[in-house]
Design goal:
Elements: H1 2-19, H2 26-33, H3 37-44, H4 47-67, H5 75-92, H6 94-101, H7 111-129, H8 137-156, H9 165-177, H10 189-199, H11 208-222
Helix pairs in contact: 1-2, 1-4, 3-4, 4-6, 4-7, 5-6, 5-7, 5-8, 5-9, 7-8, 7-10, 8-9, 10-11
Length: about 220
Amino acid sequence: MATTRARIVDAAAHLLAAEGRDAVTTRAVAAAAGVQAPTLYRLFGDKRGLLDAVAEHGFRAYLDRKAVHPAADDPVDALRTGWDLHVDFGLSHPALYALMYGDPRPGDASPAAVQAGRMLRMHVRRVAEAGRLRIGEGQAVALFHAAACGTVFTLLGLVDRDPSLSPLAREAALAAITVRTPAVAAPGPVGAAVALRAVLDDVAALTSGEQALMREWLDRVAAG
């Protein structure tokens, strides 16, 4: 069954890359994979389930590509590397990228997009723990994600792509959410709150109730 599922996903991915999303019909995928249409419904539920599986399949290639890059010691540099790989993935695989991000549904993102978001939040948390986050973690994640996705979709729509656009957008986004000097070394109220908020779960001196209250206070300070 696993082999059949993989064959179907592979067939759908090839159709998507060659002919676009509209070509990924149940009939076309079943024919390309050499199975009957009911098999698709049994394994994926519906077309959307199949498309989500295709997006996950493509995102695995993205993760494999990221794995060849050693983790940066500087958490801001790690964010910078993540941006570059994200943009490169989107430009290299526009149909897959559109599956992940082109049809936003609040609270109902594709599994691949959810996984990508989890990775971004992990990188932003590292920046916060280093005392280099200018704004709250949630806002930083949303801003960085919006800037990266907007850059990819803008570039995909251009006939003549400006190679400097992505680096300019990247550095503007980083400047908006990070500081050069760790806030713990030169504390301001927002930077200090963000840094403490990032490591609050590791503070053993507070009870769970005290942590919840402190978390609320720090979030309010971080929001400015």
